[in-house]
Amino acid sequence: MYNVSVPADVAAALHRVFACSPHAADSLELWLAVTAEAVRHLTAPSESAGPAAWLPVFVSYRRMRTDAVYHTGTAAVRITTGPLAGITYTDPDSAARAVATVAPLPATDSAMDGEGDDAVEVLSLVPTWRLPITADPAAQTPPAVSPLIS
């Protein structure tokens, strides 16, 4: 059975491959590289015996960016910027709900004509955490793609 860190580690590795790829999102080369990276992570010896990693994540909600780190061993999220900085939540959902709670509401009458006909609908959706794009693609080791024909 997988622990929390396996899917999180694989997701982060696949995101790095996708974000650093020079290929289009629908290219065969990209998806072969993503598949090769997934196979590599799923067949590599388990690293769960070592300390779990903190993955950088962020959410943009109501024009406010909040940075955080996700703990691959426990799924906890520690907020690192904004009004919630320093608070750790037990899971990504509760952290996202907290961010949504403190984000300022948009103005309800942007034309300021008192008509209220251009009110902004406030959605009850919870923001989703995202993995940042790696700043230095050269620092990533490209996955080995095995040839289909020998």
Characterise this structure:
The chain is α+β, with helices and mostly antiparallel strands and 150 residues long. The protein has helices spanning 5-20, 28-43, 92-102; strands at 54-61, 64-71, 77-79, 88-89. It has one domain (5-103, 121-139). The protein contains three helices and four strands. A four-stranded antiparallel beta sheet has the order 1-2-3-4, with helices on one face. Helix 1 (5-20) runs antiparallel to helix 2 (28-43). The longest helix has 16 residues, at 5-20.
Short description:
By secondary structure, this protein is an alpha+beta fold. The protein has one domain.
Helix content: 25-40%
Mean pLDDT: 76
Based on secondary structure, the structural category is alpha+beta
How many helical stretches?
Answer: 3
Q: Please give the domain count.
A: 1
Topology, element by element:
Layout: H1 5-20, H2 28-43, E1 54-61, E2 64-71, E3 77-79, E4 88-89, H3 92-102
Antiparallel strand pairs: 1-2, 2-3, 3-4
Helix pairs in contact: 1-2
Key terms:
single chain; 150 residues; alpha+beta; four-stranded antiparallel β-sheet; flat
